[in-house]
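Record type: monomer structure entry
Structure origin: computed from sequence
Chain ID: A
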Amino acid sequence: MADHLEMPRPAQLVRTTGWSLIESVGLPVTALALGAWLWGRDAGLLAGLAVVWITAAVRKIRSGSVPSLLIISAILLTVQTAIAICTGQLWIFLLHFPAGNLALGILFARTASGPNPIIARLAAEVVALRQPTTPHPGLHRFFQGATWLWAAIFVLLSLILALLLATQPTASFLVISTIATVVIIAAGAAVSALWLRVVLRKHGLGFRFAAA
């Protein structure tokens, strides 16, 4: 029974991943849009930034740690918000989208070949995936390969968003970039899940849901 992966039950998994998406994307974007609508562009930028740091602080207080991607997002957003407000150039803030994805691609690539690929850490953080008690070489190779896959996905997203930023007005950029991001991330998640299923079957590893 030690050679198995364990995940939360579907309802808990939906809550866990849903909240992760809300805190990393939904809350900052909502705060930015609401603040900009009520008090202007700069207030919206500051509101989105404040939500990111508040979320990080709450994470630290409740669990004692902050997800690495949230830290990167907060730092990058702080720098770009400060530059955008000081220069008055909104396009500098919008660079957060392609630049953030490029930073993620580089981060993922740097950890892909090492002993602790970031996909394994994120699987534990985001979906509470528990690996076998005894480290399995085949599973480790999967996480390394999946990390390379997501590095490529984020670099691709960076290129697409940079092209959209250069060719589309702001309103169109926000809509199209959101759709493109959702579609590509969803496709990457589906490929990763199917790949993991093949790896589990190949190496005779089991899978089960955690006890309620």
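Annotation 1: The chain has one domain: 4-209.
Annotation 2: The mean pLDDT is 80.
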